[in-house]
């Protein structure tokens, strides 16, 4: 497997999509350690296996009670702020499948009209990178996003089978429909999703690439799809608390 991951990483530094800002400088070396494995289930064989689903469910059930307590307190605080539904449900088509994601609401009730005004002057990627979209979030919402607490309800999506505990980071609907699904450079990423790979509540992108350009994240997510195993998923799961605490790339 070491040969496989080295082959994946050999040309990644020359890839025109790789532009990082806050990711570790030695990310290729970190990736080689993360993806090292002797498992026979690697890549799509692992990500679409019943063993992967069992792994996801075991971790989700182990975390559901503490997560539920925090979710209840946070949802109550969000609702008290503006008396609007504290939970949002997002979704879009991925081939013949439909991806669904549940999050604590961090945006203001009139966020959509504000977004439309901002996007008249710049595209979505520029707006997100520049921080122009931060004004659409409530004060408590900004704090929730900084610490990824708004993503806690995703443990419920894992139990439903809509997501994995560890997997590729879900792009927004605008990102998926505008920059991924019809982009021939991302055919491998879309093909993996169509074959049954679920987006993850955490993963390589969430741990190491938060705040990085979309195409950079997708290039590394494709490496994850090719090289993932139970060993990499365990390592990424263990690395998640430190990544959240460091707030690297938080916006």
Task: Report what the structure shows.
This protein has helices at 2-9, 27-34, 44-47, 50-82, 111-118, 124-130, 139-146, 154-160, 173-180, 187-194, 204-208, 214-227, 230-246; strands at residues 87-94, 97-104, 164-166, 200-202. It has 251 residues and is mainly alpha-helical. It has one domain. The strands form two sheets. It has a two-stranded antiparallel ribbon with strand order 1-2. The protein has a two-stranded parallel ribbon with strand order 3-4. The chain is globular, with a radius of gyration of 18 Å. The two termini are 35 Å apart. The mean pLDDT is 86.
Give the arrangement of secondary structure elements.
Layout: H1 2-9, H2 27-34, H3 44-47, H4 50-82, E1 87-94, E2 97-104, H5 111-118, H6 124-130, H7 139-146, H8 154-160, E3 164-166, H9 173-180, H10 187-194, E4 200-202, H11 204-208, H12 214-227, H13 230-246
Parallel strand pairs: 3-4
Antiparallel strand pairs: 1-2
Helix pairs in contact: 4-8
Strand content: 5-15%
Q: Quick check: average pLDDT?
A: 86
Global geometry: globular
Which regions have little confidence, pLDDT < 50, spanning 5+ residues? Answer: none
Largest sheet, in brief, is: 2 strands, antiparallel
The class by helix and strand makeup works out as mainly alpha
Oligomer: single chain
Number of separate helices: 13
Query: Can you list the strand order of the major beta sheet?
Result: 1-2
Radius of gyration: 18 Å
Domain unit count: 1
User: What is the string of SSEs from the N terminus onward?
Assistant: HHHHEEHHHHEHHEHHH
- Through-space gap between termini: 35 Å
The amount of helix comes to: 40-55%
Care to count the β-strands?
4
